[in-house]
Task: structure prediction
Amino acid sequence: MLKPGARIGILGGGQLGRMLALDAARLGFDCVIFTPEDDSPAGRVAAACEIAPYEDLEAVARFAASVDVVTYEFENVPVETAQAAGRHAPLRPGVKALEVCQDRVTEKSFVNEAGIETTPWQAVSSAKDAIAAAQALGVPAILKTRRLGYDGKGQQVVRRAGDAASAFEALGSVPCILEAFAPFTREVSVVAARSVDGAVAAFPLAENHHEGGILRVSTAPAPGADGLAGEALRIASAILSGLEYVGVLAVELFVLEDGRLWVNEIAPRVHNTGHWTMDACTVSQFEQHIRAIAGWPLGDPAPHSAARMDNLIGADVERWQALASEPGVCLHLYGKGEAREGRKMGHVNRLSPLS
Amino acid sequence: MLKPGARIGILGGGQLGRMLALDAARLGFDCVIFTPEDDSPAGRVAAACEIAPYEDLEAVARFAASVDVVTYEFENVPVETAQAAGRHAPLRPGVKALEVCQDRVTEKSFVNEAGIETTPWQAVSSAKDAIAAAQALGVPAILKTRRLGYDGKGQQVVRRAGDAASAFEALGSVPCILEAFAPFTREVSVVAARSVDGAVAAFPLAENHHEGGILRVSTAPAPGADGLAGEALRIASAILSGLEYVGVLAVELFVLEDGRLWVNEIAPRVHNTGHWTMDACTVSQFEQHIRAIAGWPLGDPAPHSAARMDNLIGADVERWQALASEPGVCLHLYGKGEAREGRKMGHVNRLSPLS
Result:
């Protein structure tokens, strides 16, 4: 159990690292950020910052040796980087979560082997595979790169089986996965944590709305979803223990018409659909992650309020002045310079009494 | 109106500066801390830190020239330091608040001239003065140094008029003030903000309990104190406008049996009795201060929950493990190394539904 004053190392300097560092500070910890970026959102709120490429394993070792525990804020940290860090400090969550979640085929296989449903899928290694998979699964379907996709990047919709080959080529002819369209009625997510001693705590489900592959709005607790909470917790618990996980993880779920839940995606980290917890719970997802990796008991995930979270994407952030004037709005800005299209610049939470 | 990304300079590196910096970061600002301390609580969560004595006016100028606005987190910043900073960036609140509040006689004169009551008092410059004042005001009374007192330091209770001379000598024969004991039934405080354009917003009153001159507990909204809110707001508003103040300020008030309010003390800064706002309001006192000095509109001070705040003083902080295990506790630790007696190490907020 790390004492206040201990040092927490975070691989990655983006907004998730920033919000982790802010909550870690509130618990009395010092944070050290490892990032290739000169002037990162997280680095500007941390006690120290190691600026180097992830491939510089000497810098990684120096960083890890200077802290009491290492965590990561994004799932595409190279496995070798995480392994190098893990030789000098406990790495939480561990390498297994990265290995499983960095590849969509590995991830879906892991989920299905745990007895949890996903949309039907097939691995695709060639244009010929792609056409065969589209014929087998039916169209429309979505072709995704197995690795390094996020926020709708690295995806192509396949509307006719014959188009699968060109979609594969458009994605760079890299290893892919074809996923059948899930006949979902709504998208929800469960953000859950597992402590060092194996205890699990889940925040209430959030209902999520995406546009162009990017999350726009989360509403939590998801209205009328109390009946899904038990099954969502069972799924999250199976994934957490299967990954021997320590920390916070998010599972995006499709809700089918008959109420079944299919896993869409696992994010082995704090997650955009958990940002509502920052203002609506006594313990946010960021504090929960810090508690878990520090070996502390998990906090109570019960919310004191309901919340609607709206992302500020790209030029949305130019509305900051109006948002700052709106009573009851909790404004969160990430300290990013340029408001590029599709870039997550901040979010707002609006609270309301729990119904 | 400062844009997100602007730089906020804070004179002082203690826990108040730390909590200001954390909330400023949430709004997208970068903070620069000026402190003589090598390894300060605030410096470890800020984008940059200028480490120099407050008397090093060249360092102060360099610091102020590097930011877009300067504020302070404690009222004993030397006036010359604040003035030097104010030549290079807007200083908010201004020098006047420091000049008035650094001296108990000046402060009480200012309050009384604004038509607001305080306990009866007299300035004391000599042992002879002290005895005369004790005879005039009656005993028991409290002799306090005019300058540099805090948390009960620099005070002597005078129980017999004849003891006033030795009390004066025990305080170092420096300029003092003798204050009559106020016949109060409870102590409350109002934490209020004034914006650049003169708007005022006050959080609900907190009821406060001190031990040995140090705040132990605040309860807010103060139970059964709705009838006092109007008068407290009138007092706070008069003080804020009289000081041409921009930012958050606290007024400690004695509640007399007949419901009258006497000003005990003004703190020209965020205040320990406002820490409950961090978890019970959508906008905390720290965010409110940052909004004010950045030229933003003030946030809505309405709480979503009631709160009880307990300070962790000295060895209290060793209970962190039990506190971290208690559901519903919001734990705040200040990142201070040594838990010296009387040192404020952290606080906890416990929320409950608004009654």
